[in-house]
Amino acid sequence: MIRRLARCLLVAGTVLCVGVPAPARADGLLVPWFGSAFAKDPDDASRTSVGVSYGAVSSADLFGFELDFGYTPSFFGAESAVGKNSMVTLMADLIAGPSFETRAGKGVRPYGVFGIGLIHPQVGGNADNNFGWNAAGGVMGYLNSNVGLRFDIRYFHTVDNTSAANTIQLKPGSIHFWRASVGVVIR
Fold first, then answer.
1. Which of 9-23, 39-53, 73-87 has the highest mean pLDDT?
2. 23-186 is classed in which CATH architecture?
3. What gap in Å lies between CA 35 and CA 77, rounded to an integer?
4. What is the average per-residue pLDDT within 133-158?
């Protein structure tokens, strides 16, 4: 009698565990990336950029978030011409896009991004902290449930912070540029 009850409980427990769908969970993403920053002026050469993004997106939801850090040495040209210079960006972004995945974790996620944060140019001994925004589009392709690739293009723009109204309305500042990158998605 006890064996029969134990078997029934074991079968019922197995059916419940296998038959009930698992709840959606947010996948943490770590994306080391490299790319190139460039302005729309054709005389400006592109500059090598490196960085990392960290965030979370749910495979079942359309939305997620990320923190994106980027560093571009010699952003304003050769050090011999303008001295030591660089560009640092740190953005908090909202990600939106559907996920198309198999049970094995392979799939694709086209996405759009919008966020705000810090744009920090440095030329010679002069450095400045600027409030700015970025917008992006791209696609993440998952090779399996743990690793994938991300292709991304972003537009960065500082905000004119001379008045509170300008800042609230995100009035354009003087610095704006594009960044194209490719990264390895680790989740």
1. 73-87
2. Beta Barrel (2.40)
3. 17
4. 95
Whole-model pTM: value is: 0.80
Q: What are phi and psi of 162, to 5 degrees?
A: -75, -15
Mean pLDDT (whole number) for 155-165: 89
For the chain, domain boundaries: 23-186
Q: Which residues pair with 140 in a beta bridge?
A: 109, 150
The candidate with the shortest Cα–Cα distance to 93, out of 171, 29, 41, is 29
For the segment 39-59, what is each residue's pLDDT rounded down to a tens digit?
Answer: 766 556 678 999 999 999 876
Q: Is the pLDDT of residue 162 over 60?
A: yes
What Rg value do the Cα atoms of the chain yield, rounded?
A: 23
The Cα–Cα gap between 27 and 58 comes to 6
The owner of tokens 């134990």 is: 6
